[in-house]
Structure formats: C-alpha cells, structure tokens
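Tokenised fold entry reproduced for absentees:

. . .
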Amino acid sequence: MTKARTLANFDPLASTGTACSFFRRVSSDSVHQNISNGKTAINYGTEIFDTGSDTNSAGVFTAPVTGKYLFTVKTTFGNLRTTHTLIDYWLESYTGASMTQRVRDMTNTERDFSANASDYHTLGFTTLMALTAGDTVVSNLYLTGESGSLDIIGGSTDNLYTYFQGHLVEE
C-alpha cells in the first residue's frame, strides 16, 4: 500500500533522493543594475542557500538530474519611466546554446515612477519546468524605450525585493 502524500507529510526529496534547492538574490539595494535596451541577464550575485551547488556566481542554474523543477522569480524595478515602453521578463532554459523553453511576464509602462525614488514596480511569477540533466535556466529581461536608466532593486537578506529560487519536485 502506498502512503498518500499530503502537505503534513510532504517531503519533496523523499521520492528523488537528490538534494536540489537554491535561493539567490541581487547583491544589495545599493548595487543597482542599470539596464539598457535589449536583452539583459539578471545577476543574482548573492547566494542565500544552494543545497546542491547548482548555481554559478551570477545565479544561472544547472539541472543536476532530469526532472521537474519549480522556480519563482521576482524583480523590483526603480526609476521606471513612461519612456520605457515595454519590460518583458522571462525564465529561459537551454540545452547547450539552444533555448528550449521560455516562461514570461511583461508589462507596458503607463506611469512615470521616476519622480519618487521609493516608488517601485514589481514583476514575478512561479513556474514548473521539465529539464534534462545539464540544462541551464537563466532569468532575463528585455527592455524597450529609454536606455540605461532602469534600475533593478536588490533589497537586503531580511528585506528581499529581487530574487530567484527553485527546487527539484520530481525526478
């Protein structure tokens, strides 16, 4: 007889035996990433934890085993202006140099947020991705409109604004 898996007894590693979870954030609130037009990889330079050592210093994740992975990304933008016409925000998975999946969120800028330094705009989502061992996952953003003045706000360890986290849910 198979024991039913409920929230009370759920252990995501019980069926896989592979420890794989990570949580990374943008370095700090004082280190803003100035974003230019076009595609930019978001640099999650600070590791909160990485149980399988599966992310590099920029926060790019490499799947240690074939399976299903749950990812959450959240990014807070500062100095957002109406001249930034579109922010397209996504997670992409790659097998070698070939992109295999893209999950995205986007926003059209309808309001000028630049007049108040503490007036931010946040995008984020959670997604499940099927990956093959060795596939990589990176968080990117594509900006159109005014160049060089959009900031990504990091926060601090106890007050996170921008982060990337994930874990293996099924092997």
